[in-house]
Amino acid sequence: MMTTMSKAIPVSVARLRAWRVGRLWMAAGSAALLTGLVRVLGFGRSADVWVDEVYYWHIGHSVEAGGFPRYQGDLFFLHPPGFFYLEGTWERLFGWRPDVISGVYEMRLLNALLASVTVVVLVLLVARLTKSTWAAVAVGLVFALDPFVLRLNQRVLIETSMMLWLLLGYLVLLPLAERHPPARAYRRAAAGGLLFGLAVLTKDVAALITVLPLLVASVFAWPLRRRSLSLLAAGCATLPYAIYVGVVASAGHFDVFWMVKTLGIKRLLGQVQATGFNSRGSPPLSERIVEELTNFGTTYVLLALGIPALVMLLRRGGPAQRLMAIWYISAAFATAYAVLKGTLEEQVTYLLLVPTMVIVAMAAVQLHERRTKRRRAVSFPVAGMVLTLVLALAWSSVAYARSRAQPDDGYAQMRHYMIEHLPAGSPVISTSSSVDLILDDRYRIGQWLKPQDRARAKVSYLVVPWRLVEQGYSWFTPRQVHSLTRQGALLFSFNGRTYGTVAVYLLPVPPSQPPGAGNAGGGGG
Question: Where in the numbering of this chain does the ArnT-like N-terminal domain appear (predicted)?
Answer without folding.
Answer: 104-232
